[in-house]
């Protein structure tokens, strides 16, 4: 099933999976597929990249999804994801049926870093961003950490895993922007208090970029580390194309445009230059000039941009 | 089992299939999916003199059967590349084709000097499809004279036995004129095509999607343009080796380029769809040749022009 | 209901959507699928001076998200066209944009004279993306000077109030230079883009598929190239009306061209996929504008450049 | 369901059909779909053009298929076709399932011309070329014509409608190239004798081009008219693109490149310049120069071919 004899061991696999089930959960869909080998290697925070549209598809690029659950099995493990219908690729995915084949590449990306000590942890998920939090919770509990979950969404139907959370965590807080469930507002309304009360040392977060930025700031202010799983547009998902970069400050203090597919998707929140995502910040290694966002290549001046 | 071995401007390759520059980084990541030493060659991402941060994101847009990219040649610079990236390929015994990109002729020369002095390099690909800062940012390969200037300048620094290929852009009125210019200037062959200049506009904001506004169009969508370019250049310069690239997805696609006159081919964007694609293309090319009863890839070369095999 | 009315170089159209030349014949066949008088305009297949049999078959190849064609401008010639084809459109009250193609400058002039003297013609589209027999078969629109020669020659024969558009090819190093040349020569606007030169090779015979060997690539595959061309020309010549064409499939695609600077758009190859497409695009364009809260198509024009609406 | 208010009446429709059933018959598939309005307008020899690959398909062009049967109905008529898996589009079609929607344009093309008198007719079908012959037989019999069928294929599994033929025709002859059923050989081995014995005035034929050419020649020699349904590559199917042309001599004796989608697919066999299909024969109206096939545009000489 796996491609590439002689390929480097470890790392990601490309396998032909088979859809086991596709079930609605609130506004999302929960897809279970076989993906032999992928399940076995998965660590919380990893993602899979799925090809979409079938054999004669005009959609060339894979779609990335956080792994929700992975179950090893002698008959070939299964991988589960939770996804929202967004554009044309995920629309195609909503029509998958059991036994359909699906090409899976994974597990991809750096997983969440786990604390060495049995500390208290807060896990924050926005919408389908909760998906990777359950396997993370399991690992954390296995290390003796206490796990608190904070689940946010625009409305109740976009909350994912609220029920499961009560089994997975010592405490669960819920926020919705429209107040249809839990606290009316955003996760960051609740987070400061939660960090303090639980004495969390680490905050894990997955969700929209603005949420991650806010979570990272709150964690900072409250003396906690943060581990944020970002979502950048990715062409390859495996580290070869350089489309998925964002500005991150390294251990050496240098800002680099780093690939979120292999050096992420999980980053230390305090290392990401959140305000500068979508730009090349001043001082970035190799930045040709200041404020590159303002110096977009002008099609008037030259025939083409460098590839 | 057809004979896939390929003699490309003096280098012998086990098969004519390579990765395309910028679509395989420096090979290491693809090592997860296939044995990079089995592929004809690994063409590395165009490297520049100094570290380069590239363009702001978004850097890609999916388009019908293709994609746009505006990476802006992000890379670590030649020092870091030679010290950290190239050795991985060399140690394994892969055949690295090192792609270089400069903003000035001098930069190309300097890069060439550095690359040719590094052990284990199989060939040099000179990506002249990038803007020339000394000439109003016009792309070198858009002008036969500017293209020739780069090739002439690097030529003396490339030792015997190390072939040097010029990477051409299709965004020109006559790609044959550019190919002829680089051939006359001493290139051992040409890699064609680079991406087509394109752009996409966000349906919600009505602003350009790419951080770089315009970007390069690649993928199966552009294959007919690439095949045409290879065919034209092979017709005009039948002795000039061409490496065909642009939208190759299958072994049959690769064979289309070979029939058009390509000595070797590269797989680019399709790697993003299928990271195992390069070695799959090798296998499929083999079975296509078998199916047609053609004994070797060499026999198929240029077939479309009515030569051998027809 | 957004306001779709469009003022295009002096002609008023109920909406900015047209058929592309060569993709709607002379309108009659599409009358089965929608009311041709409701569309902004019907651009007829480029007509030549004399009947023309075109190229041998096969004349088409399907390609990823596109197709290649080598029709070779088959048509009945201007006499038959004016006597038999045009009247159908005129009698119904459709707005015919008549596309003409010549092999020499004189032929263009002669065709122009004939067309402008026919009642009911709304505009003239001068297809200069065809080979110039007087200049080694080089395509007029590949050379700014040759392009300008045609436009200058026909200009005096086009009466006030009848706009004349030059149809440009993207197969050039700088389409802005060609657009500027035809603008200076007196064109009222430019239609862009014509097809990209491409080719395909038969996987079984390894020979070119098309009877004409090379052909024109069209369809959604080329849309990013077309949008870029429109964007570049609008940036360089903001007052010069552009009709955008290339791969438009949906109202959102049409809006992409409008945002890039197009005053009107044409639907071509997608008609083969969906013969109702032109009017569907009108409806979808309307709902896209509504969705974005933009009151009129005019307000959206050029948005991508950071003008009004942003 | 039908598009285009204000569209010209009569002619073809574009409708969203629904798959009713897809069943194998020998090497072929028999597809039944709803196509309201199309069934009602269909005449024998018409074809439909189906879009393939779904919403995000990289395949832009429709595929043409002869109408096998059309059944009018108050609940929206059905149209049936018989197809062979050939390339990527028909491969996609083999995976259609009941209730799948399919965009149908039809009925297209000129139907078979029917004789004014109740004469004897021979209907020749090669492979799936038999598909249009059954509705034709029905019409002919309704006019008092006697109907004889001659069915040919490479082998038994590629014969279509052999059983049905015995109900539809007064006599049936079968040929297979491998002799797996009926006479070993080609339809034209049997045809001369058949025309003579049945006294056929008209021969109707549908099948591969070489078969049509041979049938047309035999009909000529034996004093019968022939009506041949050709199969040329078509981009639009509705007459707007000029890709589907072949050289045909008109009533006025002039050779023209005519569109097989609207002026065909059925042609009088004696009018088609069979030997010259794929070329622009000398003397064709508008032929720029002699032997155009030999003057293929040379990519060396100029930048592009005229579109
Ligand atoms: C590491 C990672 C994990 C993710 N996990 C999940 C998840 O668990 N559940 C889920 O529903 N979604 C997840 N996403 C987002 C998901 O990848 C996009 O919703 C999806 O790619 C949209 O595809 P589409 O064809 O429907 O949209 P289109 O807009 O048609 O996609 C066009 C192109 O843009 C890319 N794209 C569009 N939106 C996004 C986005 N938000 N992020 C990245 N690429 C995008 C697509 O991959 C595709 O290449 C994740 C993204 C990343 C990068
Ligand atoms: C008037 C007419 C009636 C037909 N009736 C039938 C029928 O009843 N049953 C049947 O099985 N087939 C029939 N065909 C042939 C059928 O259209 C092709 O087999 C089909 O288009 C192949 O599509 P593909 O995607 O599988 O092949 P591909 O090779 O992938 O197709 C690529 C392109 O070439 C065109 N093409 C390829 N082969 C043919 C061909 N033989 N004829 C026309 N276009 C072709 C396709 O339409 C498509 O645009 C008919 C064709 C015509 C013109
Ligand atoms: C993301 C991306 C990055 C690229 N970077 C480079 C590059 O650095 N140097 C280069 O010569 N070509 C570069 N290219 C062009 C490819 O090498 C290739 O010429 C082109 O994409 C056409 O081939 P394809 O359709 O197979 O991708 C890049 C292409 C893509 C898609
Ligand atoms: C079959 C076909 C025939 C064409 N004939 C002409 C023509 O006669 N004159 C012309 O100016 N353009 C012609 N074109 C080009 C189209 O008008 C249009 O510029 C091009 O196809 C890009 O648009 P599209 O992708 O929407 O088809 C033709 C295109 C096709 C596909
Ligand atoms: S998505 Fe390609 S490098 Fe990250
Ligand atoms: S298929 Fe388009 S005219 Fe016949």
UniProtKB/TrEMBL annotation, chains A, D:
Gene Ontology terms describing biological process: pyrimidine nucleotide biosynthetic process
Domain of life of the source: Bacteria
GO function term, MF aspect, one: flavin adenine dinucleotide binding
Location of the region described as Disordered in the Swiss-Prot/TrEMBL record: 284-307
The keyword Iron appears for this protein: yes
Keywords: 2Fe-2S, Electron transport, FAD, Flavoprotein, Iron, Iron-sulfur, Metal-binding, Transport
Cofactor(s) listed in the protein's UniProt record: [2Fe-2S] cluster; FAD
Family matches, as InterPro entries: Cyt_c3_hydrogenase_gsu, Dihydroorotate_DH_ele_sf, Dihydroorotate_DH_Fe-S-bd, FAD-bd_FR_type, FNR_nucleotide-bd, OxRdtase_FAD/NAD-bd, PyrK_electron_transfer, Riboflavin_synthase-like_b-brl
Coiled-coil portions: none
Positions bound to FAD: 63-66, 89-90
Cofactor note: Binds 1 [2Fe-2S] cluster per subunit.
UniProt xrefs under Pfam families: DHODB_Fe-S_bind, NAD_binding_1
Residue stretches making up the FAD-binding FR-type domain: 12-114
Segments of skewed composition (Basic and acidic residues): 292-307
Binding site for [2Fe-2S] cluster: 236, 241, 244, 261
Membrane spanning residue stretches: none
PANTHER family (alphabetical): DIHYDROOROTATE DEHYDROGENASE B (NAD(+)), ELECTRON TRANSFER SUBUNIT (PTHR43513), DIHYDROOROTATE DEHYDROGENASE B (NAD(+)), ELECTRON TRANSFER SUBUNIT-RELATED (PTHR43513:SF3)
Protein name (record): Dihydroorotate dehydrogenase electron transfer subunit
Species whose genome carries this gene: Solicola gregarius
Automatic annotation (TrEMBL), chains B, C:
GO molecular function list: dihydroorotate dehydrogenase activity
PROSITE patterns, A to Z: DHODEHASE_2
A GO CC annotation given for this chain: cytoplasm
EC number(s) recorded for this UniProt protein: 1.3.-.-
Record-level GO BP terms: 'de novo' pyrimidine nucleobase biosynthetic process; 'de novo' UMP biosynthetic process
Transmembrane segments: none
Positions that bind substrate: 45, 69-73, 127, 194-195
Keyword Ribosomal protein among UniProt keywords: no
Annotated keywords: Cytoplasm, Flavoprotein, FMN, Oxidoreductase, Pyrimidine biosynthesis
Active-site residues, record numbering mapped to chain: 130
Subcellular location field: Cytoplasm
Pathway: Pyrimidine metabolism; UMP biosynthesis via de novo pathway
Top class in the EC scheme: oxidoreductase
Pfam families assigned: DHO_dh
The Dihydroorotate dehydrogenase catalytic domain, residue ranges: 4-289
Keyword Cytoplasm: yes
Stored InterPro entries: Aldolase_TIM, DHO_dehydrogenase, DHOD_1B, Dihydroorotate_DH_1, Dihydroorotate_DH_1_2, Dihydroorotate_DH_cat, Dihydroorotate_DH_CS, Dihydroorotate_DH_I
Entry note: cofactor: Binds 1 FMN per subunit.
Record: residues binding FMN: 21, 45-46, 127, 167, 193, 219, 246-247, 268-269
NCBIfam families in alphabetical order: PRK07259.1, pyrD_sub1_fam
HAMAP family: DHO_dh_type1
Family to which this protein belongs: Belongs to the dihydroorotate dehydrogenase family. Type 1 subfamily.
Entry function: Catalyzes the conversion of dihydroorotate to orotate.
UniProt-recorded name of the protein: Dihydroorotate dehydrogenase
